[in-house]
Structures are given as C-alpha cells and as structure tokens.
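Encode chain A's predicted structure.
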Amino acid sequence: MAATHIALFASGLAVLLLLVQGSPPAPVVQCRSGNTNCTVTNGYGAFPDRSTCRVAAVAYPSTEQELLLAVSDATEKQQHMKAVTMYSHSIPKLSCPGGSSGQGLVISTQSLNRSVSVDMATSRMTFEAGITLRALLDAAAARGLALPHSPYWQGMTLGGLLSTGSHGSSAFGKGSAVHEYVVGMRLVVPSPVPVNGYYANIVNLGEDDPDLLAAKVSLGVLGVISQQVTLQLEPMFKRSITNRVVSDVGFEQTISSYAFTTYYGDISWYPSQGRVVYRDDVKVPITTKGKGVNDYLGFRAQPTLVVASLRASEELLEATGNVEGKCVLFRLQVDTLIATGMGLKNNDGGLLDFTGYPVIGNQSDMQSAGSCLRSAEDYLLTACGWDPRFAGLFYHQTTISIPFTTIADFIADVKKLRDAHPDALCSTELYLGFFMRFVRNSTAYLGKTDDVVDIDITYYRSKDPKRPRLYEDVLEEIEQMALFKYNGLPHWGKNRNVGFLNVTNKLGAKLDKFVSVMQKYDANGLFSSDWTDAVLGLRGKEVVVQGDGCALEGLCICSTDDDCAPKQGYYCRPGEVYEQARVCRKIKSVEADGLAWSA
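Encoded structure for chain A:
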C-alpha cells in the first residue's frame, strides 16, 4: 500500500508543475454572529497545545482613527486585546488575547494594508502594518526600490514579521532581519486616562528613539503597530542564484566562511542522504540579463489529492514503523526539488521554464515565494499544502539560532546521532532537511544576541497528540542539544513550547530593557497573554504544560515515563550524545533496558 502512495505522489509531482490555480486560505477568525462570539487560530489550524482560542469579538479597522477607537473602547473596559494578521502564520499562540477565555478582543490588521508614502531622495517608504510582504515588495518595485532582506514566505504581513523578528539569510551589513531596516513606527497603545477623549494614544517612534529597539520586535505586547512603518530601502538590483549539491563530509567546517562570502547564501542539509545544497546567491547589477522568479514548489498551490496521499503514506509508514519507506519517499521529494531548480524559474514565462543555472531576476521577484496565496479559487482542488481544510501536511517546526562560533560542533554532534541511527532523520527531508540561514547580531531588545546560523527543522506531527513518532528521541535530543548545550535562541514565531525554556536568561539585560518599555506603554498588560507572559518570564507563568504524554508534543521535557507513552513502548531516557537531554525513546523490553529510569 505504501508503494502505491509513493507512485501516486511521484505522478502527482508532474501534475504540480502544471498547476495554475489554487484555493486561497480561509480566514483565521471565524465568528458565529457577525463579528462577535469568535474563534481564532493560525494558518495551520492548530496551536502547539491544540487549545481553542475563543474571543468575544473581532474589530476590522481600516484607518488609524478606527484603530484608536477600538483600542480605546477595549481599554476603558479593561478588555484584553491582540492584533491578528490576515494569514496568521505564527505557530505559537501569539494572536490569542489574555484574560478569561471568550472575553478578549482581536484586532485584525487585514484592512490596514496600504502603502502610505515614499521619499525617493532617501529611498524610504512607509506602509501600514497589515500589508502583506508580497504587496510591499510590489509597491516598492513599482518605485524602482527593493527591500534589502525578507523572509522566504511572502504571506506574512509587515506587522507580523516585525513582531516575530522574521528574516531572510545574510551575514553582510546589518544582516537579514527586516526589523534592522525599520527607521520609524507608529503604535496605538492603551492609556489609563483619557487622551483627547480616548483611552488610547498614538506613539510616534523615530529612528533615534530608544523605544524603537523594543517596538520593532515586540511579540505584539506593546500595542498595535499602526498606519506607519517606515523602511530603509535601496535601489532595485538583481540576484543570481545557483543551487549546488555536494557531499556533507566536513561541510560543517565551511559554514562560517560560506556565510561571510555569499551575500544571500543559505544551506539545506539532508543528513540521512549525506547531501548538502548550497544556494550560491549573490547581488548583481540591475542591468544584468534575466527575468527569473522564485516560485518555490512547496509554496505553490498543490493538488490536494496528491498532498493528502503523501500525508496518508507518511501516517501509514509511521503506524507500521517503516522508517526505510519514509527514507525512499522523501529522497524522491528531494530529487524532484533539485531537478526542478527548487522552484526557480528562469524567464517568468510559466511553470516549466527552469532551464538551468544561474537564475537571475529582480530582488523583488527572487527574495520570497508564496503563489498558493494568490491563485484563483478552485474549491480545494488545490491549495497550500498545510491548509487545515483538508488532510494535508501537519508538522512540528523547531527553529533555533546557534552562534557561528559553535555551529561546527553542533553539526558534528548531530552527525554522531545520524551515524548511530542512519534513518532517524529522514522525516525532516520532506521539508528541506536542516535548513540554515544567516542572521546578524541585533540592537533590537528581542533580536539575536550573536551572529548566528538559524536552523529550521520541520518534521511529522501526528493528528493524535498521544501518538509518538518514529525516532522521537533523536529529534528531541537534537532540539535540547541546540537549546541548552549550544545556548540557542528560538524563533519567536515558530517552535514547540520547550523551545522557549530559559529564553529569559539567554536575553539577559536586553529583556529587562524590553520589559521596561512594555510597562511604559501597557502597564496593565492588556496586550499581554498567558503565553507572552510565560515566554518573557512574567506574572509567574510557565511555558511548559505538564501532563501524561506532554513530551510527545514538546509541551514539556520528560522527567517520568508517563510524560512519554509507556503503553506504546516509549519511555523517558537520557540522550545518547547529549546525555543531559531527557527524551522519549522506544524500548522493546523494559527488562532488557534495566529498571525504569528515574530522573
């Protein structure tokens, strides 16, 4: 049966390359009566704890005045609030208000989506917070300007990507985080006393205002980013990209030198295959010939039948313990990505026009992808692969930044685990394996504390929160190794709960400065929630959620066997390479393993 799924998937890839339509995502806010009695989710249909976020109402301001009124009314009632973006692609529970369930307000930035102004003399443009990255890039390109760096997924909004510290890949200059190019911002914040008749205030933060260092990566706890975010852009240029596949032997020793010699380079490591894909990606003059476009295959509209079949095959292979089958299936995926240029198109002509490297195109066309968001409605014949309206992809994402100074040691440790369990990491290779991007040290209080390699690891998540994964222990050990042995920082918009353990200690004095600004603008914590309090170490909240099976979903690190799935043969045990780790390991015989381990 698994072979049938693999054959269907292979034939479906050819169909994927011909697709021109797709179903745009459904709204993340759904209400029972007008704009009241609502639920809020994210673009994947599930938060890490799988809880349901219920709110009293949603507001859709289309002007700064309407936004001011919404914040004022909620502040007067002491109602908790959160901003929610159009597609809400953050995995953690950042868009759910605090306070009692069902009593909060979410403020959608969906209608705050315009370009505001441009200063051609300084190459600066001002945008509203709800504009999507795709619309922002197009608006800048129409003026002959380019955003120097951006995330690779263009479905994010400006306010959302800034609030979570989102980035591209570059170790040059200020680096690849978009917030490094913010030179001005307006916020609407609560006011405990009326200001001109409103219990809210508009705050203007200029380029030299120290509070901007808190506002430009804020997790949404200061207020709502308003009508004006001003970005420092640059004249349009082109990029030249070549994907280069090599053996992974010794590649960890080249990561730093590669990052500091390749302007936009990134690395995809497929550990079970022993392959590395270097993306040789550099700036070239605007006069260079080429009309290339980045239309990454994973972000195109995909046939739901094919994706559902892929997911079904993944579930079957998990259920039957067929890790070899997963390796075969996902190697086919990687081979297809490489053969099709990872979705790069040479001349903006169609879906089958990758003709070879280099692919050269304008910065605005090459820096991000996401055509599944812009396709015409086809009633779920096709969609983004993770759309929760059908049985498609469902995954965990561990995204941790490790300093350049220790990245080679980290990779060497992962290789030790890989060599001990050659098939254990196949599950990551459906999703670009270990995907590495480069980010510079930041002045933002919640930004990176070092020059780092940001590693994305995406992997299977069961629909059943009590069902363990194949080789669960290996990925848990890698996660804990990155976080604790190598002192990695989590990406604010990704990760399971355990990714945020001890983050307050890692940020140190920068966190103290951030909290000081937060208390200045929202002393009563109306824009805070249990989740942001836990992450920031406030009000006694904790990021871990204890309970039977909690370690399976990354809600806790196991300390007893019950935190795993002992009835299914998974017990809490020390790590193999990083022995301080505590992981859920499949044990065939508890007696053979010795007495049950106790922390």
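Confidence is low (pLDDT under 50) at residues 1-20, 595-599.
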